[in-house]
Amino acid sequence: MEMPESLEDLALDSRWPAFFPSAISLVTTCDGKHTALEKVVGASIVNRFPYVVALSFCKQAISQRHHSRASFMEVLESGECAAIQFLAPGPILSRVMEVIGEIPDERTQTRLDATGLKTRPAHTNRSPVFSEAYMVYEARFAKPGKDFEGQPIYPTPWIDIGSHRVYFLEITAIQLHQDIAGGPSRIYWRSLPAWAPRSEIMTRQVSQDLPLANQYIKGYTPHYVFPSGGTIAYEADTIVDGMAVKCLPPLAVDQVEVDNDRARWPCFFPSSAALITTWMEDGCPNLMPCGSTTVLSRHPMVIAPCVSYSAINQRYAPRATLSSIRQSKRFGCAVPYIHDAIVNAMRYAGNISFASDRDKVANSGLEVSRHEWAPLLPALPIHYDCEVIGEVRLGTHIMFLGEVRRIRVRDDVSVDNPMEWYPWAEIDASGAATYK
Ligand SMILES: Cc1cc2nc3c(=O)[nH]c(=O)nc-3n(C[C@H](O)[C@H](O)[C@H](O)COP(=O)(O)O)c2cc1C
Fold this sequence. Notes:
This protein is α+β, with helices and mostly antiparallel strands and 436 residues long. The chain contains nine helices and 24 strands. The radius of gyration is 21 Å and the shape is globular.
């Protein structure tokens, strides 16, 4: 399918033309006079130091689905702060989603009352926090600063991209329910969609003798359980109102963790992953799994992977993908799914740089087909061809703004054989995950 669509077509149906796995979160804000509540699709951690979450809201009337969130954005812009929060699936979450669906943006300020739920102020800003939330990210507008190379970052706390305005919010504190922080409950998150291809998916035999030795290995499983043996230990400063609260140092330089393990995200945040493909300068294909990838705008449709450029440690070593995207101004964005061969390929390609393995894609076990725009991985069901229309320097990561020019979908993705995705994490005290 060629993109972008016409505004007339979008007015009739502005659903995403193909699937991209995104989590949903709830956002509240307060400017001292008014409070506001919205839901946001695809909130994404886009930078590590400073620790920044990006939230994108529609500012144009495209269709009934995509309409302006002007009132919410007005309160957000005058309050300059937010609480991004997560409720466990169930009647309370359903109620909040209903309220957001039923009460229009012009009356966003009445939504909180309409939920009938108790709230309390966040610790580091005025945004209301649902007492029922199991996890809360408190954040304020990112302030202008300099990155580790002395280059300016965040001259403005938001940018306009097509139909949407994208806000950069620096995380100031995290609250995690004490039953999760200290047991017995855990968070279950299935970070990739489930899907069963109907035909051969074209993978290769992987050699056991690959250059992964002597380096830091970033583990990966799409069946994420937090906390668990493979995740970071959540280090709270205090417990208040049943929540284990961790405050982040106000300056990015004081947040920096050089140790590869400690530099991981300090707590769970729901994200998925895309496979970003590029042709390298020498004509070889490259592949980079990218968890910080999100859809930022609907018209034109813009997909934004965030690629590390900082040399803090091995975990965040500058990516070969960075220079190839900059050079070609193009990338492919493929949607992975739960399948052993694909997850193994992600583990390999997500730990080895093209700089140390020119046969990285073949060694990951995936076949590539020649496609001029960007390498096409026939095993993967959905491919977006993206053209770089800009890049944003965020501190440790560069956010590439990739306008979708073409979408390819395998013909065995169909109404009879859909990709299954659940945008909410589940909380369970029993140790058994129940995915819907
Ligand atoms: C699941 C997963 C998600 C990742 N997400 C990101 C990300 O969001 N940004 C980033 O810069 N690197 C991310 N990485 C690490 C890169 O994929 C990895 O450094 C890769 O080897 C870079 O390849 P290149 O140097 O050939 O471009 C991720 C790795 C995995 C396994």
